Amino acid sequence: MKIARTNEQLSALLVEAKKNKATIGFVPTMGALHAGHLALIEQSKNENTLTVCSIFVNPTQFNDAADLAKYPRTEESDIKQLEEVMCDILYLPSVDEVYPVSWKSPDFNLGHFDSIMEGKMRPGHFKGMAQVVYRLLCLVCPNRLYMGQKDLQQFTIIKHLIPQFGLDIELVCAPIVREEDGLAMSSRNVRLNEDERAIAPLIYKTLTAANSNTFKDPQIYCDFAITQLEHAYMKVEYVEVVDRKTLLPIKNWNDTSEKAVCVAVQLGPIRLIDNIFID
Ligand code: AMP
């Protein structure tokens, strides 16, 4: 695997690849890699001739400085894991490489997506996320961009923004990789203590209950879910049954055939988000 720490090194590697007419798959991450990230790399490797992964903890998408400071950074083990799955190029830039003083971020219109669920809870988060994804796409110039369903709102916003980016990119959504007990893998999970880790799988169990046909309407399910999670000492930020395209809440189960149940809770020191698709 080739490692580029500067934009110059990255473009030299990409010029070489483009000479060979490679199709490029790109997997942007913030590091502290786990099997969820590696599944995205594997998928990109299967569908492209060259896979680029980036590791960049983007300061502009953190609305809480303490969260940014505590974000796990595990460069050595990340490199080892990427080498094991035979990722082709790792782009590992500094903040100055991604945001040189001369670079001005375009203003993107995030529409209603910025004021619901994660957008409501983390003001400014998606503006920063859109900024970094656009910047990275301009640097890497991939044919395909791989993002996880785990961050459904992030994925949906990028899908909404691709026409505004004006880039010819295919966006691919990869399924959520879970621990054996159902907990969605996340770089933040390492910060859970033993007791918190033991109750965390209740999130997925509660999500899957939405499939059981026992709730007359989505609101009744959401009330049930909140009670379940709060009983387990989680602080629930939201539970919503939404239309997968708009991410807006639905009132009746048959309002749309493409639904998702989305949840965010605070458990001990961290926020956990998860979702499932339901028909
Ligand atoms: P992050 O490093 O958290 O910014 O995540 C980088 C990419 O990996 C994003 O597109 C995430 O949605 C995706 N991702 C994170 N966790 C998982 C998971 N458990 N399964 C699949 N993809 C994931």
Key words describing this protein structure:
single chain, 279 residues, alpha/beta, Rossmann fold, Pantoate--beta-alanine Ligase, Chain: A,domain 2, six-stranded parallel beta sheet, binds adenosine monophosphate
Brief synopsis:
The protein has 279 residues and is α/β, with parallel strands linked by helices. It has helices at residues 7-19, 35-47, 65-70, 75-84, 95-98, 117-121, 125-140, 152-165, 194-199, 202-208, 218-231; strands spanning 2-4, 24-29, 50-55, 89-91, 144-148, 170-174, 235-243, 259-267, 270-278.
CATH C-level class of the largest domain is: Alpha Beta
Structural class: alpha/beta
Number of helices: 11
Give the number of DSSP strands. Answer: 9
| CATH architecture title of the largest domain | 3-Layer(aba) Sandwich
State the end-to-end distance.
Answer: 41 Å
Low-pLDDT segments: none
| Biggest sheet, spatial arrangement of strands | 1-4-3-2-5-6
Radius of gyration: 19 Å
Percentage of β-strand residues: 15-25%
Helix content class: 25-40%
CATH homologous superfamily heading of the largest domain: HUPs
Order of helices and strands: EHEHEHHEHHHEHEHHHEEE
How many separate domains make up the residues?
A: 2
Mean pLDDT: 96
CATH T-level fold name of the largest domain: Rossmann fold
Indicate the overall shape.
globular
Bound molecules: adenosine monophosphate
